[in-house]
Each structure stands twice: as C-alpha cells, then as structure tokens.
Design a protein that fits this description.
It contains 8 helices and 9 strands. Helix 2 crosses helix 3. The chain has one domain (4-230): Class I glutamine amidotransferase (GATase) domain (Rossmann fold, 3-Layer(aba) Sandwich). Helices cover 33% and strands 26% of the residues. The protein is globular. It has a 9-stranded mixed sheet, with helices on both faces. The protein is of the alpha/beta class. The model has no long low-confidence stretch (mean pLDDT 97).
C-alpha cells in the first residue's frame, strides 16, 4: 500500500493520535517536516492519502512553501486522493480550493464544545456523535469552498469542519494527545496570556485539568473520524 503523507509545519504540531491510529491499522505513513525545510514531494500521486497538520503561521503569509503545497492539495483532489486537514491544514485546503481565511471574531485556545450539523454526510463521518469537546488553538477561520458540506460548528467559530466527499477539513483539533496539550501550553504561554481577554481562551491550568479524560474522549471521536477517512485511501 502507498503511504499516507503527513505535512508538519511546526515541530510541536505532529500527527499525535493520528500516528497511533494509522500504525494500529497497519497503514504506512511518511512525515514531511516543512518546519525543518524538508522538500515537498514533486507529486502527490505516490501517496494513498494527504494529511496537513497545524502551525502558528497564516496561510496568507508569504512563505515559500505555501504556494507549492496548495498545488499539491489541488493535485490530490484531481487524483481523488483523500485530504485531511487539522487547523492550519484545514485552512490550507480551503485556500487551495477557492475559499478564504480571515481573522476569527475571537481567538480560541483550550477545550470547547463543537456541535455536529444535522445532515447525512455529518452522520457518515461522526456516526451518532452529536457534540464533543474539541481542542482549539486558532485566531483565524476558513470559509467553505464550493461543494463543501458543513459538519461542525461552535459558539465562537461557525466553520469548525466541512467535507467535500472523501476530503475533510477541521478548524479544531481532534489529533491531540495529553503530551501535545501540555507542550503547547508551555510553548504558547505568552500567547495564552496575551489573549486572556478573549472569552474563548482558557488558562493553562484549566486546559490541563482532567487532561487524560479529555484526551480519552477526544481520541474516541478521532477514532470514528479516522476510520471513515481511511475508507477512501487510494490503492
């Protein structure tokens, strides 16, 4: 089987629980560390799926790797190779497919409820899950590209997830592990402090309270979503 390619844009924003899931299902995967200036593949045709992780940058920044990565996303759609975007990754998919990424009304950092939209495609992806506590760390939001179906929303950000067939884009994070959450709180301490006036930003103490339980339930959601996503992997 061709491997799944995972694009990492920041050293602390790796695949997390997704790596655990893929290995448990004997699905090979390859990490491209954009944060370490590893070169992008010349084509996406050699992969069964494409995953884009988060990062602190904006898709609207003039970084040299953004434009070629957007082209690889478009190639994946043309070749019917499934995309999966987490936070920045979801924003990259949106921009590649004609959507826009703009400043959200408020910054979101920490745990917050997201609601599953009542439509048939959302049921396919989330089964009987009606809402769950997702992890958030973003200041921007994406619009939904043409033909996208809205899947998730929250109090502070309307577009938390959408799908276009087998392609899935998240604004929130479902890939988190307890170790990742703790690391983000450490490296992002200044950001949390500077955004403390936002009603959607929690302190590190609140974020890490009952952390194993939060991650246990989030992993269950991720397991459901990832199980559906891998059904579309290319041969």
């Amino acid at each position: 089987m061709k491997p799944v390619v995972i694009f990492r844009h920041a050293s602390v924003e790796g695949p997390g629980y997704l790596a655990t899931f893929l290995e448990a299902h004997d699905i090979p995967w390859q990490l491209v560390k954009i944060d370490e200036n590893e070169p992008l593949p010349t084509s996406i045709a050699h992969y069964s799926g494409v995953v884009l992780m988060g990062g602190p940058m904006s898709v609207n920044d003039g970084l040299p790797w953004i434009s070629p990565l957007l082209n690889l996303i478009r190639e994946a759609v043309a070749l019917d190779i499934p995309l999966l975007g987490h936070c920045l990754g979801g924003q990259l998919i949106s921009k590649a497919l004609g959507g826009t990424v703009t400043v959200n009304a408020v910054k979101e950092i920490g745990w917050g409820e997201v609601n599953v939209i009542n439509n048939e495609l959302a049921r396919d992806w989330f089964d009987n899950i009606e809402s769950f506590n997702a992890f958030h760390w973003h200041g921007e939001t994406f619009s939904m590209p043409e033909n996208a179906v809205h899947l998730l929303s929250s109090k502070y950000c309307t577009n938390q997830a959408y799908a276009i067939g087998k392609h899935l884009a998240f604004q929130c994070h479902i890939e988190m592990t307890a170790e990742m959450v703790q690391t983000w709180c450490e490296v992002g301490a200044d950001e949390i402090r500077n955004a403390s006036d936002s009603p959607a930003v929690q302190t590190a103490e609140v974020i890490t309270q009952n952390l194993p339980l939060h991650c246990f339930f989030l992993n269950k959601v991720a397991n459901q979503v990832y199980k559906y996503w891998i059904r579309g992997l290319a041969n």
